[in-house]
């Protein structure tokens, strides 16, 4: 055999190894998706062995190429390659595919399996997250590289399937990426014409390539997905095209090698079955025994690819050392960015708002905070889905993030909320960045699937959600969130924070910047709120504990009534409290800025804020009452909004729906009256 032919045979053996590791793992688990890995094995093999720059011994190396398997259901494709190339993933880990506690869950999970760059499975989001990674690379390169050796210069690769292409979020993200001319983003499209219902012809007949050409992408086609040389050449051409993102539509065959199931949806989401596994192995000339078979020369071939990456990493380390020596302050900023540390003095310029300066909308306070933080945190970047002037998210005197200004810190996401949130996830998982993104709170619905993934992955993304209630006013119920707080509160690991005034907004941002293991959503008002006099009431820093006693009756006796509220309704309960106090009622105001942060406090603190002895509790929030019963208990009441809002001036709406200090006072008084004599202590 010529050396070329023996090389070809070896690579075929590599591809078959990947295929049959996936087949065997799915068969053993009796659950999973064998078809996708079988069809896409050749393109993934080509990418991993000829292009992708990675070091299995250091999966966190900042300048590695990023790889996203957007078709996350094909997870065994990724796990097989991670095992073969030398990541910390053993053959036994593959044997434990989809089992309790294994490193090989059904879909790839970020921070769970070494080498998995982001959680995928919800189709379309991997693609959009990769766009965020690519823009992170460009921003960090433009910000840090300087004129000498570069420390940030890598590609972002994606394997995406038909399902990814059908999802709207990939369209939003592709449109953004095309506009941004993200030349180092390369998508391999597993164009196999099959999804779960059967042929994609049932629902998806457009010309995907023409669509991406219209998005201003560089588009190529490969007619035979098993042609390693053709795939290789297309990836090389995509890398050479630096002015546009690239997509390569690679015609593949789901279940490739399975004589009875190839090109059918039967091999999409179910094991091939024992007989078909045998037939497939026979068909490919693969040994029937043992299962999970990895020929020694195959392992050596893949480990050599990993070793080449390790060598590239070594060169980078030298470049980084030279770069580092050239500029100590730049290096300090880089180190802080990658370790997510807050540099000394980061909060030195944060504003302090005085009551006598008049009312301030918390969205406007947030804008001032962002601008006070920006000089200290060079990788605090973000923007809005076309609402920057309303969300107050722009950093002043710095350029927008555009192809012509890649170090720009202000993102114009366009009216693409879902892609914006997924891009933010990509910025966060890439590392080195502190992303924030913004829209009206009501449109957080459009971002919800990406917020969920941020929470699941534990990503420090900050959401700036302004126009947080019926305070929106005339725009009416379409623009007035009512159920959205409850949704965030129901989302595990998501911190929701609704500050009551400008100074609490400062504190809320501090919380966001220090919450490293999950997203923080800041709900901010459109309308002005009075600045609470902190000489009279408790300090604004209390919001860091979620709920705190803002005002209390004198002395140490337990309160007779607890008034609770968040955000703009805190001023109402404060006013009612003053009247009650003047009448000798032992009233307490608890500012419930964040359910989640309060839940995280220990029982003693929670008890000190909401003593069990006081069952007379009134919660006030211009949102659905769902969830508040937990805090008010059986003896309490809720002034909420268990219906949609309406179009009218904000003041009128608050009044008509009972959100007035007068109503809070009357309801509290009635509650205390009913609870008397036990409830009133004096
Ligand atoms: C948002 C979302 N909707 C639905 C699913 C369920 N699902 C998993 S794979 C799949 C079909 C995907 O088809 P394709 O991308 O062509 O994958 P292939 O059949 O080639 O494996 C669907 C609907 C999902 N994972 N994510």
What would your notes on this structure say?
The protein is α/β, with parallel strands linked by helices and 682 residues long. It is built from 24 helices and 18 strands. The strands form 4 sheets. Strands 8-7-9-10-12-11 form a 6-stranded parallel β-sheet, with helices on both faces. A 5-stranded parallel β-sheet has the order 1-2-3-5-4, with helices on both faces. Helix 16 links the parallel strand 9 (434-440) and strand 10. Helix 1 (3-29) packs across helix 3. It starts with a helix and ends in a 7-residue tail after the last helix. 55% of the residues are buried. Thiamine diphosphate is lined by residues 33, 35-36, 71, 73, 121-123, 161-164, 167, 190, 192, 194-196, 254, 268.
Q: What keyword list fits this structure?
A:
682 residues, alpha/beta, six-stranded parallel beta sheet, five-stranded parallel beta sheet, 24 helices, disordered C terminus, binds thiamine diphosphate
Main β-sheet, in a few words? 6 strands, parallel
Radius of gyration, in angstroms, nearest whole number? 28 Å
Helix content range: 40-55%
Q: Segments where pLDDT lies below 50 for 5+ residues?
A: 678-682
Oligomeric organization of the protein chains: single chain
Gross geometry:
elongated
Q: Ligands in the structure?
A: thiamine diphosphate
| Beta strand % | 5-15%
Lateral strand order in the biggest sheet: 8-7-9-10-12-11
Structural class of the helix and strand makeup?
alpha/beta
Number of strands: 18
Number of helices: 24
Mean pLDDT: 97
Distance between the termini: 100 Å
């Amino acid at each position: 055999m010529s050396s070329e032919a023996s090389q070809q045979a070896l690579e075929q053996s590599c591809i078959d190894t990947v295929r049959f590791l996936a087949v065997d793992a799915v068969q053993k688990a009796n659950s999973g998706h064998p078809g996708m890995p079988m069809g896409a094995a050749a393109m993934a093999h080509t990418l991993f062995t000829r292009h992708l720059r990675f070091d299995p011994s250091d999966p966190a190396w900042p300048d590695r190429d990023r790889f996203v398997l957007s078709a996350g259901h094909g997870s065994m494709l990724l796990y097989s390659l991670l095992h073969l190339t030398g990541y910390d993933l053993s053959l036994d880990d593959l044997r434990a595919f989809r089992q309790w506690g294994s490193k090989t869950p059904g879909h790839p999970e970020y921070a769970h399996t070494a080498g998995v760059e982001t959680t995928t499975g919800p189709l379309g989001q991997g693609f959009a997250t990769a766009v965020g990674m690519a823009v992170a690379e460009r921003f960090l390169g433009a910000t840090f590289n300087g004129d000498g050796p570069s420390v940030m210069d890598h590609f972002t690769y994606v394997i995406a399937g038909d399902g990814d292409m059908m999802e709207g979020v990939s369209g939003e993200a592709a449109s953004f990426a095309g506009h941004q001319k993200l030349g180092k983003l390369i998508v391999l499209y597993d164009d196999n014409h099959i999804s779960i219902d059967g042929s994609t012809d049932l629902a998806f007949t457009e010309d995907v390539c023409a669509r991406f050409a219209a998005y201003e992408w560089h588009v190529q086609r490969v007619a035979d997905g098993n042609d390693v040389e053709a795939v290789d050449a297309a990836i090389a051409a995509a890398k050479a095209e630096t002015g546009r993102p690239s997509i390569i539509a690679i015609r593949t065959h789901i279940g490739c090698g399975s004589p009875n199931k190839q090109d059918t949806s039967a091999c999409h989401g179910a094991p091939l079955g024992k007989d078909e596994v045998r037939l497939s192995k026979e068909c490919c000339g693969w040994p029937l025994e043992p299962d999970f078979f990895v020929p020694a020369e195959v392992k050596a071939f893949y480990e050599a690819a990993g070793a080449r990456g390790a060598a590239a990493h070594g060169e980078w380390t030298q470049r980084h050392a030279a770069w580092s020596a050239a500029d100590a302050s730049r290096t300090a900023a880089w180190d802080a960015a990658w370790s997510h540390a807050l540099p000394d003095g980061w909060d030195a310029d944060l504003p302090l708002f005085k009551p006598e300066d008049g009312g301030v909308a918390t969205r406007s306070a947030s804008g001032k905070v962002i601008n006070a933080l920006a000089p200290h945190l060079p990788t605090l970047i973000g923007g809005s889905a076309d609402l920057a002037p309303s969300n107050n998210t722009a950093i002043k005197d710095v350029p927008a993030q555009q192809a012509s200004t890649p170090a720009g810190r202000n993102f114009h996401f366009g009216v693409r909320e879902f892609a914006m949130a997924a891009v933010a996830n990509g910025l966060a998982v890439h590392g080195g960045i502190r992303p924030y993104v913004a829209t009206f709170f009501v449109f957080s619905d459009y971002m919800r699937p990406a917020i969920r993934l941020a929470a699941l992955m534990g990503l420090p993304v900050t959401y700036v959600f302004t126009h947080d209630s019926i305070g929106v006013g005339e725009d009416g119920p379409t623009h007035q969130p009512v159920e959205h707080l409850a949704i965030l509160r129901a989302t595990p690991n998501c911190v929701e924070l609704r500050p009551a005034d400008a100074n609490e907004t400062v504190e809320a941002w501090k919380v966001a910047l220090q919450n490293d293991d999950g997203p923080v959503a800041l709900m901010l008002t459109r309308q002005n709120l009075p600045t609470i006099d902190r000489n009279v009431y408790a300090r604004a820093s209390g919001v860091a504990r979620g709920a705190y006693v803002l005002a209390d009756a004198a002395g140490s006796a337990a309160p007779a009534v607890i008034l609770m509220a968040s955000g703009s309704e805190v001023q109402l309960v404060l006013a009612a409290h003053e009247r009650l106090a003047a009448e000798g009622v032992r009233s307490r105001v608890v500012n419930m800025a964040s359910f989640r942060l309060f839940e995280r406090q220990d029982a003693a603190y929670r008890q000190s804020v909401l003593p069990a002895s006081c069952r007379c509790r009134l919660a006030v929030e211009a949102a659905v009452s769902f969830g508040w019963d937990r805090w008010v208990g059986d003896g309490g009441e809720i002034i909420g909004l268990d219906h949609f809002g309406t179009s009218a001036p904000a003041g009128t709406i608050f009044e008509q729906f009972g959100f007035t200090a007068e109503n809070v006072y009357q309801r509290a008084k009635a509650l205390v009256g009913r609870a008397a004599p036990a409830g009133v202590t004096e």
